[in-house]
Amino acid sequence: MKVIRDYLRMIRAFSPDARRFLTFTLFTAVSWSTFNLTFNLYVHSLGYGQDFIGLLNGVPSIVIL
Predict the structure, then answer these.
(1) Separation between Cα atoms, residue 22 and residue 50, nearest integer Å
(2) Digit-coded pLDDT (tens) for 22-48
(3) From the centroid of its chain, how far is CA 49?
(4) Alpha-carbon distance 59 to 40, whole Å?
(5) Which of 2, 7, 27, 37 pairs with 55 at a CA distance of 20 to 30 A?
């Protein structure tokens, strides 16, 4: 519990803009993760296997290179 209290105390010391940025980043990450999970479950329900889903998730990383 002490670690959590110390962490929250540290975050409260940030400027309001920094706290807004961290909050926005948190909500963005949760939204993106929810979308990815839902999309993967949808592709799986269409009958595609885990290997195809893995390739589908890996393509954006390969394209960036």
Answers:
(1) 33
(2) 999 999 999 999 999 999 999 999 999
(3) 23
(4) 14
(5) 27
Q: Residue 53 in contact with residue 40, Cβ under 8 Å?
A: yes
Return d(Cα 12, Cα 15) in angstroms, integer: 8
- Assign 51 a pLDDT band (cuts: 50, 70, 90): very high
Task: Give the CB-side neighbour count of residue 33, counting CA atoms within 13 A.
Answer: 6
Give the pLDDT of residue 65: 82
| Number of C-beta neighbours around residue 39 at 10 A | 13
Q: Which residues contact 47 (CB under 8 A, 6 or more apart)?
A: none
Please tell me the number of Cα atoms within 13 Å of 18 on its side-chain side: 6
Domains of the chain, by residue range, sit at 2-64
